[in-house]
Amino acid sequence: MTENINDLRSRAGRILYRELPEEYRYRDTGPEGELGDLEAMLHGFGHLLDQIRATTEQALADSFAEPLDDGRAIQPWVVPYLAELLGAELTAPDPVARADELNNSVAWFKSKGTLSSIDDIGDVVVRTETVAKEGWRMTAQTPRMDLPPFTQHPDAAQPTNVITPDFRKLNRAVVDEDGSNPLYHLKPDHHDDGAESLYWRALAPNGVPCFPRAYDDSTARSPDLRDPERVRRIGPHPRRTLIHVRPPQGVFHGGLPEVALDQSKLDTLLKGKEVLRAEDLLSMAQLGEGITGPAVMARTPATLNLPNSAVTFEGIRFASAKGPVTLKGTANTDVTFIDCAVHTVDLALPKTQGITFRAENSVFELILADRRHGQMEYCTVMEGAEFTRLDASDCLFNSLADTLICADAEAPQSCIRYSRFAPRDLGSKKSRRCLDARGGSNTTALPQFIDRWHKDGEGCVKRIARYGEPGYAVLDTDTTAAITAGAEDEGEMGVGHGLYHAASLRALKDKLEQFLPLGQEIAIFYDPMLALSPPISGSADSDI
To answer: Where on the tree of life does the source sit, at the highest rank (predicted)?
Structure first.
């Protein structure tokens, strides 16, 4: 007897069965809870017909870059072949962005050279809001015989590139309810499902900027002669295009649903099994987007005890409203994290040899696993990691404890490749051996993380994100290429590898070089103001 009889039914089988004469259906009776022989035969053919129909519909969807009305979309592996037919060169690393890039390729070539196409390219390739600004419009001009026109009335409107702003006015972006210019259109983040797009305008274009060098700052300045690759916030230049990018939210984005997870619930969910996935906490329709699959934010107490056995967590971000979350393990705990975020992992001394800690595409604040053998790939550890043996690839560590075996003939060595790490004590001989034993693919360069505006009481403060906040562990644009392109596949080290943060910015630069005039520099940087919605209204009057 089948547990669920609906699993045997098919769409085509139902249609065929309904087309039979009523007498056939009346006589086709089977045992209780089972299908009749005739109906079962038709559903057997129906499953094959359903697969043929699905293959045909997918073949139709693979012919178009945009999704069909039924939601079917082109398969990622088909996109390069369709792009070759159109003569489009795709650069976006994100599979979703590549399909959108292909869908807009023809329109971009028709509008090549316009500021609107440059702005639209940034939105699609990076998959977030960007604002493109021409450097020559923001560069101060030296007065000459015909500039400005001295015959105009003193009260006439001033040119936009006046070097001295009007200190009586304050300038910032405000909502423009009647706006229609696509260059002043702010679209919500793709993680914020309930947010609406809006248009903005400058409150006082010739006034003093409230947020210098933000996307809404139009004040003219002297040409900035510095290298855009070496400076986080660079100024205008006549031969430079500035691209303001909304900073990514990282693993803690606003689209993650929250669910309570206490010790008793955790023990119940893990009873009789070793794997706890995000879909075990909420239904698939309610889950948010993770790195390798669906994800959820689990609100837990300050401490959770792991089982005294093997356990795997997938797609779960552990957070607590009362402070850091610590996952404590016993001597027999063998834990694996896939697409997870944990503040602190504290594991007791093991009783067995072998790998007892594994992590992929995950972020941690602190890992305490002395006398243990760990294995990590595409992970970020913001504070420190303590292992005896560690096999790591494409990871970003703030520091590694001097308990790590890196060069010892009497014990198996650790294997760390394509990673960023530094010992806590540079003076110790053991730490020096650890540095000397690293391969040429590793680096000790310092990472730079983005700063965003965060609520601080009734006000806001701009700082680096803490654990559990949007922007946590996201690398800034002035991070050295040894980290942002130091992975084995030339992607970025750490948890951002699967989020394509640095790779998307490089792809955007490569794409814009095809659409901008020869000799134009491209400066791309994160703008914290783009993560905030402009106010509905404001006053341009200054109290200065």
So the answer is: Bacteria
> For residue 422, what pLDDT is reported?
80
pLDDT tens digits, one per residue of 53-80: 999 999 998 888 888 888 888 888 999 9
HSE-CB for 234 with a 13 A CA cutoff: 26
Q: 145 exposed, middle or buried (CB, 10 Å; 0-12, 13-18, 19+)? A: exposed
| 328 vs 352: CA distance, rounded Å | 17
> 198 — alpha (psi -120 to 50), left (phi > 0) or beta?
beta
- pLDDT at position 1, please? 45
Query: Which of 522, 508, 512 has the alpha carbon at shortest distance from 127?
Result: 508
**Domain shared by 363 and 429, yes or no:** yes
Q: Which domain holds residue 239?
A: 116-246+494-544
- Shared domain for 170 and 319, answered yes or no, is no
- Which residue, chain included where needed, has tokens 């559903």? 43
Whether 285 and 300 share a structural domain: yes
Q: Are 274 and 158 in contact (CB under 8 A)?
A: no
Q: The pTM is what?
A: 0.85
For residue range 143-168, what is the model confidence (pLDDT) as tens digits? Answer: 666 665 566 666 666 555 556 788 88
Between helices 501-512 and 115-126, what is the axis angle to 10°? 150
Q: Note the pLDDT of residue 544.
A: 43
Measured over the CA atoms of residue 530, residue 531, residue 537 and residue 541, the dihedral's sign is negative
On whether both 143 and 212 belong to a single domain, the answer is: yes
Element (H, E) at 267: helix 263-269
Residue 9 neighbours by CB under 8 Å, 6+ apart: 35, 43, 46
Identify whether residues 310 and 378 lie together within a single domain: yes
Residue 483 placed within a domain: no
Q: Is the peptide bond before 188 cis (omega within 30 degrees of 0)?
A: no
- Specify whether 422 is located in the same domain as 522: no
Low-confidence residues of the chain, pLDDT below 50? 1, 544
- Does any domain span residue 484? no
Give yes or no: residues 93 and 53 share one domain: no
Pair 105, 138 in one domain: no
Residues in a beta bridge with 462: 453
Count of domains forming the chain:
4
